[in-house]
Amino acid sequence: MRTRRYGKGRDSSPPRTATGFARWLVVGATGLVMLLGATGTAVAVPPPPPNPSDSELEAGRERANTQAGRVGQLTNQLAEAESKLLQLQGEVAAKMEDANKALVDMRTAHGEAAQAERNAQAAKRESEAAAEAIERARKQLDEFIASSYRQGSTIGSISAYMSSDSPEDLLARSEMLEAVGSSKLDGLEQMQRARTEKANKDSAARAALERARQKQAAAERAKRAADDARAAAITARQDQRGRASELEASKADVEQQLANARAQVGGLEAQRGRYQEWLAAKQREEAAAAAASAAPQGGSGSAPAPAPAAPAGGSVETVISRALSQLGVTYAWGGGNGSGPTLGIRDGGVADSYGDYAKVGFDCSGLMIYAFAGVGISLDHYSGYQYDSGTKVPLSQMRRGDMLFWATGGRVSHVALYLGDGQMVEAPYSGSSVRIAPVRYGGIMPYATRLL
């Protein structure tokens, strides 16, 4: 702190000699008279408040801008991570459906292979049975032929006709022997055909079994591949979810740093404002004191009354600092006023399902009420009225500190505070908290509302 001096090379402490002390007392009395008004009472000038330097203010603003840039970068990275996570969730769902399809196909192939195995076994048994029947028939035929020759029963054998009583009987016996031989031969041919058919069926059954086994093996390979793909997709989704969580934590940390930096800048600017007000008041008081001391003694005139101090102007940064100071505060429908977060209220629907009525926090319009209360602006607790509370400016001309609005079904349904660089601060919805997010242009109103 600089020491105020009364003269060149002289300290402000009183001299130690009597003569010097008298001189110091006279000088001090003269200074006191200069601070007296016409009525003889001392003008009260309070000590000066802290006055941050321009370099301190600029450094604070640079820190805040740096943190804001980091928040913007992390916000974009988080948005990309969340988009990737949604894509991976879709891929996981698709892979799970692929695995389900492969499982169904594998079960079907198992069933077909089992049925083909049963058919092949049945065909094999039929073929073997046909071969056995043919072998028996051939043996019977061989025995019949041999017996006929032994008994002389064949055509042309004398003994086959010896017992005939008449020519007619002889003819009948000849036809009977021929018929027996023919039936045996016909039966043998039919059995041969049956054996061939059974063999063909057996061959076809074995081919079907081989195809079924190949299909079963392919289905099992597809199932393994689908399971591996699903597992890989789930792992990727888990990794991406971890990445998103890390980004969210980093973003929350940097948002807090940004809020602190903004609050510091707001505090320094407020200190500068108070110092400037003090300086202006001091100058007015000194001018009034000087005018009073210069007025003729006993005159009827009086010193002019000091002009009242002008109210501090509204600051966009004050509004933004107040909004950012609430980052992370819980969303509560109907919550928030000029003093801070309040208990939410019932809506009979979605907010009640989240228990907002039992939470202390802000909804979107409540956050705006708190932010603008810092500069003496009072807003209604309804985003539709807040939309009409100031000057409408096209979105192409929006600037830091403007309010942005969204509509649903033609009605204003949400409000946020624009921070610049495509970012905004908002209390978004039940189950969330106050956050910084990129400006969403879907459903946004064509005008921003400017109050400062």
- The CATH superfamily of the largest domain appears as Helix Hairpins
Outline type: rod-shaped
Strand order of the largest sheet: 4-5-6-7
Q: What Rg, in angstroms, do the CA atoms define?
A: 53 Å
What assembly state would you assign to the polypeptide chains in this entry? single chain
Structural class: alpha+beta
User: What is the name of the CATH topology of the largest domain?
Assistant: Helix Hairpins
The top-level CATH class of the largest domain is Mainly Alpha
The run of helices and strands is HHHHEHEHHEEEEEE
Approximate strand percentage:
5-15%
Largest sheet: 4 strands, antiparallel
Number of domains: 2
Q: What is the percent of helical residues?
A: 55-70%
Please mark out the parts with pLDDT under 50 across 5 or more consecutive residues, or reply none.
1-43, 299-313
What is the CA–CA distance across the termini?
Answer: 37 Å
CATH architecture descriptor name of the largest domain:
Orthogonal Bundle
Mean pLDDT, all residues: 77
How many individual helices? 7
Q: How many strand segments? A: 8
